[in-house]
Sequence to fold (493 residues):
Amino acid sequence: MRLNVTLRSLLAIAALALCACYVCNAQADEPQKAKNVILFIGDGMGFNSDHLGAYYRFGELNSQVYQKFPVVLGSATFNVHKHQNGVAEWNPDTDFGYVPEEFWKDPKGGTWRHTNTDVTDSASSATALNTGHKTVSQRLNYDCNEKPLENFADKNYKVGRSVGIATTAQISHATPAGASAHNMGRNNYAEIGSEQINDLPITVLMGGGHPEYSNGVKIDKPADELNYQFVGGRETWEHVKNDENYKGWTFIDERSKFQELANATPDKNVELPKRVLGVVRTTGDVEPIDGDLDDPDYLLKFFSKETIEAEPSLAEMTLGCLNILSANPNGFYLMVEGSNIDHANHARNAAKCCLEQVSFAKAIEAACDWVEKYSSWDETIMIVTADHETGQMWGDGTYDDDNDNGKYDKEDTFNGFKQIPKSPRGQVPAVQYLSSSHTNALVPVYVKGCNADCAYDFIKGNDKKAGEFWGFSGDYIYNSDIFNIMSTASGIK
Fold:
């Protein structure tokens, strides 16, 4: 009897050991999930704008750090069209908002759309990027049926991760709002700013929209005449400015404070504030004050001395965010927007676009360096993309300006799409704009880090012409798939 008991015990122990080995092997086989997700959005950055920046900065294509990421795809950015009767329906199986053959026909291809799709605005695109749902223009994290959507930030809050946002627009502008807030109208800035500051558990929020400064210069107006909409209204602003630790925020607006946070890297063991609200001293855009090529005097052709001294670079804001967010052992989601590539292209200003592209690229490089020093690509995924293309920028000679009015119109001769011409470092390539608006052109997607290959699971089609023209596979996803990539890579469902 004792022998039988002993035998049964040994068998039980062996069975438990086998189970333990099975569990260990299953765990070993399970791919590691990204603890940190970093999303860079170049607002208005198409492939041609991206190539413009590379030529200007280095004189060569594929010279930016992110252009060498292992995964390179295109992204179709169209949104859902709302008909006059109020109906907004989109069937992803039949309503193709991007058709390569239509795009490459002629300049009208940039605005071609299906009956139920449209050229996107930044709000609907930001919603797609952050929720996985395409929606109609103006909406922030609301679907086509006006139902609120849970965004990627919301999902990170639920699992105990931190969320950070840095932008060169106002903090409540469309793209940062899409990464954080919920509103039926992108222009409801005061409501959006109030939600960001008063209601959401954002860990760090940085950008423009300062009521009291314009381009680093104090606005000479009484307090009741200032514009408080971008920071949640006057009451919220007064609390932020005057109430120490309001809602747990540490408020900063001087460039030196942004620089202090950027320099407070994890290896220095500096005690950092728990939450930071950084409102740059400008009511409008944060300028690319590091967009020069090691020639600060060049910037004075574009910006005042006061602006350069008062405003932090996007790289400084990005590093400050990373240092604060990394204090959370559970990980974080950081969205960084280079907002004004879009504004430069709206204005058909290629020289300003170059500065914006350089500043955006420097922020990405700073983040890559930070990851390699204080995290790793084994626990971090980084995605660089755009919300849409702006301006249909092409190489010089794309059209003949027959009526000599400085812009393309129906009276001009279209010669076919030309590539951005190679140019020496520091020289703005000769380009032409076919538009001053958003277009349906594919935008680039660059991915590196933990589970980056999952991006291939979401390919929607192939644009052979785009692949040949811009030097990639031609495979493209939808902008809504950025959310799917972030969710899959991080394990946040």
Remarks:
- Residues 1-28 have pLDDT under 50 and may be disordered.
- The radius of gyration is 24 Å.
- The chain has 16 helices and 21 strands.
